[in-house]
Write a structure and sequence with these properties.
The protein is of the alpha/beta class. The protein is 44% helix and 15% strand. It contains ten helices and ten strands. Belongs to the short-chain dehydrogenases/reductases (SDR) family.
Length: 283
Amino acid sequence: MTLTGSGSAYDPPADAVPRHSPAPSRVREHGPARRLNRPVALVTGASSGIGAATARRFAMDGWQLLLSGRDRSRLERTASGTSAVVLPADLAAAGGPRLLAQSALHTTGRIDVLIAGAGIGWAGPFAAMPHTDIDRVLALDLNATLHLVREVLPSMIAARRGRVVLFGSMAGCVGVREEAVYSAAKAGLAVFAEALRQELRGTGVGVTFVVAGPVDTAFHARRGRPDDRPRPRRISPGSVAGVVWEAVHEGRDEVFIPDWLTLPARARALAPGLYRRLLNRFG
């Protein structure tokens, strides 16, 4: 069993990166000078996969981007040709979310959208999962995300505008065998998104929760076991990025990619016995 970084979110670093977020003076810009009269998006997990594709989609519409991940060189590839600012950070490190939020707000003065894409996976029997891996999956997929939202949210509330984008998984909706901790983390994010959305009513700040099917990234291979199931078909990161952009633009609370992914969760709620029989057969 292997714990690895997600190709769509939290890649292992290719170069040495400190166990803390860099001070604002170390950030690097790409392309023309920033125009702070345009909206700002902070994207974590921006080194590749969904995070990188989402960053590029927002850049197409003139957003100022703040890109975060552990791998500076990959972040700079994502930033190439844009005015993005690269903010390498280890969100699982103590104080990582706070330092990233401080650097981001110092750099641009505001964050209009937080796209929290950092995450890792682990596959294998729960009874064989090392305790350190349990802690690390929960630390990044759940705890670090909550702490980063907590750091960014006050500035959004003060401005009376903003949106938080969180990424769930079908594993968090229905539970997937041999992905027990990952399922738990994503289920926690789903409930957190709903609770936070209700809490923020009337503040001008919204929450979008995104649940995508298998995406064509290195996520499954890097978690220690590839996903070789022929169905459902894999989705391109660009397709997910397009839906995320539309959801933010339209202020949508929840999106499933593709739409039919709402069915398993409904089946589990309405007919749990039938759902479990199907799950036992098809996994």
